[in-house]
Design a protein that fits this description.
The complex is a heterodimer. By secondary structure, chain A is mainly alpha-helical. Chain A has helices at residues 12-29, 32-58, 66-81, 86-116, 121-151, 170-189, 194-214, 216-219, 235-240, 242-251, 255-286, 289-299, 301-306, 311-337, 347-361, 366-394, 403-411, 415-430. Chain A is built from 18 helices and no strands. By secondary structure, chain B is mainly α. Chain B has one domain (3-325): ABC transporter involved in vitamin B12 uptake, BtuC (Orthogonal Bundle). Chain B has a two-stranded antiparallel sheet with strand order 1-2. The chains are: A mainly alpha, B mainly alpha. The interface between A and B is large, with 45 and 51 residues.
Chain lengths: 439, 336
């Protein structure tokens, strides 16, 4: 399938330069603070897109549950870096862990019985009995622990807290947590066809968010965890330091702005290190025998299987890897935000927008995913102000305070979804392999 | 033992709501399953198609209300529904022309269609937000109850009340009519038969002189009617909020897959399986058991298996069980 635009789209260096111009232009027209804010989330988006590109671009798997893995990364930040709540641990921590262990043992027992017993009606009843009895014992143990934990100062804590470790450690933990959950999901759902996998992962993501919203003992649910420790200094600390004040004086800028930009630059620096490492690793992987094998499986599963490749195991592997990268990105994002807000996870923003990035950038190429991440994220943010100025131009002739004018101006905020849809459909139709196509 | 009161509580909080919800899911799942059976892809834009249809219906309802036209005790939305269906039909035909037809001509892989439907989903979601915003809006008017809890108590002298809301009664009636019409169309008319033939074996159907574009046209029109009706009934029962329609995607797909993708009777069965499990698992059975258990055995806990916030987990759990143990669904859909 060759795109109509083949030959029209410039090469990758030019495309990256154009995207860089977009960010620089934002800095010049709006403010450097805004441009850096968008750039930092662009870095995170690029990492998410890299993860999705592994699953879709290398292996052709449609994962519609990216939001869930991103949220797991966020959970990892809370669990790792927030200081523990000793009172809550004393009240019910052990009980909660015991309940969880019992729940896991029940599932393990049921799986074991299923594997060991001969197929038949008896096996079905045995497994059902174990699951049902296990569920009620689990609930009775677990619920008491949860109630005890959530009673401890619910307005301030009401949860177990984390381990109090450095927040940077939470990033790999986020990847590992997402990988673990992906492994469990992959074990059950990867045998399914692409449509079913899409719906199954869509459901898993909703469940992960539901757990985050409701299990207050874990991460305070919808009460949110704020004040997550930061890997970089606070703006206020910077403003108090003589170096920063001297720098601000030399630049002739306001110290508040200078400190804000310095904080953003430090985050950006950390993120760039991760992104560069990931691009290097993915490029190595993609151009290794392993990468060729993955593409062979993607393009023709039957032929790859006939060549002795274990398609199922490779699918599971890449699903776990891609999800781990999304988890890592999720942890980075929550660190950047400084808070975990389960209510803010929306599939349109955290699953389908990442898909747009990968498709537009170019599925199958790491550079394409990165480009798509930056470009689409910039568009996602900037459509709103641009749309607003356009609406102002359109409505300039209308009477002040007319209902239609107000409606049009108010609705500019919703332009972004429309734009994303149009961009996705246009790229899919006229340049189906994306801006940086796979060779 | 107080069987009557227990039964009334069960009816009021489980059976009636689950039947209404099941009927809405069944209508939605019928649309999904038709798209899958005939156009051969899972349409992610379906939830937003429902939202669009419900939105047009809501706008027409407002216009009618402003003009002083109502249906008396019945919701005015019923009068506006045909307009909603028509507008949605035009829009889905438009998207087919602009988007899907190209990929059909290319014989693209199903996953390309899914990604295209993703784009359509963004656009439709954006249009709905542009036109009507994201706020919660009330679609229902007219008489609220067919039987209210107090009337029922006065009538029967029972301790517990049983309420049947107009929207619930209407949902069940309208869904029944729609299903009967659909099945008559599919089995009794020439177009319906050719649609089923197409779903069974497209090549053979084309060889036998079935016109593909005609089949596609009718499928989209029926899908628009089903999606709009399901969306309006859901909006009447709960309220109109664009985002909830997106979230309905999961239970609707679960219903279609559980029943067997591509099988219309399966979609109906799946809708009710999902609805009853969702309501049953998340309902606190304390009062029901309280009436049935002997004195002194009354339960202390809520007797609720899962908190209501985990209703996604229920549809998903059933979906997974069916996929693992019976991958083609309960009624054997067209394709494994």
């Amino acid at each position: 399938m060759k795109g109509v635009l083949k030959g029209v789209v410039p090469g990758p260096p030019v495309l990256f330069a154009l995207v860089a111009c977009l960010f620089i232009g934002t800095g010049v027209v709006y403010s450097w603070n805004t441009a850096l804010t968008i750039f930092n989330m662009g870095l995170v988006s690029a990492i998410m897109a890299l993860g999705v590109n592994m699953q879709w671009g290398y292996a052709g798997m449609f994962n519609a549950g990216i939001m869930g893995f991103v949220a797991l990364g966020g959970l990892a930040v809370v669990v790792t870096s927030v200081p523990p709540v000793p009172a809550a641990w004393a009240a019910g921590g052990g009980q909660v862990l015991l309940g969880l262990a019992f729940g896991a043992a029940t599932i393990a027992g049921a799986v074991l019985v299923w594997r060991r017993m001969a197929a038949g009606r008896l096996r079905g009843f045995a497994v059902a009995a174990i699951l049902i009895a296990g569920f009620f014992i689990f609930r009775s143990v677990f619920d008491r622990g949860v109630a005890a934990v959530e009673r401890i100062e619910p307005a301030l804590t009401g949860y177990l807290g984390g381990l109090g470790l450095p927040v940077l450690l939470a990033w790999p933990v986020g990847g590992v947590l997402a990988a673990g959950v992906a492994w469990i999901i992959g074990k059950t759902a990867l045998g399914l066809r692409s449509d079913y996998l899409a719906i199954a992962t869509l459901g898993i993501a909703e469940i992960i968010i539901a757990v985050l919203k409701n299990e207050d003992w874990l991460a305070r649910g919808v009460k949110n965890v704020t004040d997550i420790p930061r890997p970089v200094p606070y703006e206020v600390e910077l403003q108090a330091s003589a170096h920063v004040l001297a720098l601000a004086a030399r630049l002739g800028a306001d110290p508040v702005t200078v400190s804000a930009i310095m904080v953003k630059l430090s985050y950006g620096g950390l993120f760039i290190v991760v992104l560069v490492a990931l691009i290097w690793l993915s490029e190595r992987a993609l151009h290794s025998p392993w990468g060729r094998m993955m593409r062979a499986i993607r393009d023709n599963e039957v032929a790859a299987a006939a060549m002795g490749k274990n398609v199922g195991a490779r699918h599971l592997q890449i699903f776990v890897l891609g999800s781990a990268v999304c988890g890592l990105a999720g942890a980075m994002m929550t660190t950047l935000d400084g808070q975990l807000v389960p209510g803010s996870y929306q599939p349109l923003r955290f699953t389908f927008l990442i898909w747009v990035m990968v498709i537009v950038g170019g599925s199958g190429t790491n550079w394409g995913a990165v480009l798509g991440g930056f470009l689409i994220w910039w568009l996602w943010i900037m459509v709103e102000p641009i749309g607003l100025s356009m609406m102002e131009m359109i409505t300039a002739g209308m009477a002040q305070g007319s209902a239609l004018r107000d409606h049009l101006l108010g609705s500019a905020a919703h332009m972004r979804l429309l734009t994303m849809g149009v961009v996705l459909l246009l790229v899919l139709r006229f340049s189906p392999r994306g801006l940086i196509p796979e060779r | 033992m107080d069987v009557l009161n227990a039964l009334v509580v069960l009816m009021n909080f489980v059976i009636i709501p689950a039947t209404a919800y099941g009927a809405q899911l069944a209508l939605g799942a019928l649309g999904v399953t038709l798209i899958y059976g005939i156009l051969r892809f899972s349409n992610l834009a379906y939830g937003d198609t429902m939202a669009f249809g419900a939105m047009v219906t809501l706008l027409v309802t407002w216009a009618l209300q402003a003009a002083g036209i109502t249906l008396g005790p019945l919701p005015t939305a019923l009068l506006a529904l045909p307009v909603g269906i028509l507008a949605t039909g035009l829009v889905v035909l438009g998207t087919d022309r602009a988007v899907y037809r190209f990929y059909r001509g290319q014989k693209a892989a199903p996953v390309t269609f899914i990604i295209a439907s993703l784009g359509v989903m963004f656009i439709m979601n954006g249009i709905v937000r542009l036109v009507i915003g994201v706020e919660d809006r009330r679609l229902a008017d007219g008489e609220r109850f067919i039987i209210s809890a107090r009337e029922f108590r006065d009538m029967t002298g029972l301790e517990e009340g049983l309420a049947l809301r107009t929207s619930q009664g209407l949902t069940i009636v309208v869904a029944l009519v729609a299903v009967v019409l659909l099945f008559r169309f599919l089995t009794r008319t020439r177009t319906g038969t050719s649609m089923r033939a197409w779903s069974d074996n497209a090549d053979l159907a084309q060889l036998s002189g079935v016109n593909p574009e005609r089949v596609v046209l009718y499928t989209w029109l029926i899908v628009a009617a089903l999606a709009t009706t399901a969306g309006v009934l859901y909006g009447l029962d709960k309220s109109f909020k664009p985002f909830t329609y997106f979230q309905l995607l999961l239970p609707i797909f679960a219903a279609a897959i559980v029943g067997g993708l591509g099988s219309p009777p399966g979609a109906i069965l799946g809708g009710f399986v999902i609805a009853f499990s969702e309501v049953g698992v998340t309902y606190a059975f304390r009062r029901v058991v309280g009436y049935l258990a002997p004195e002194g055995w009354r339960p202390d806990g809520l007797l609720q298996l899962l908190s209501t916030d985990y209703k996604f987990a229920v549809s998903f759990g059933i979906l997974l069980i069916v996929l693992v143990f019976r991958p083609r669904g309960l009624m054997r859909g067209t394709s494994a």
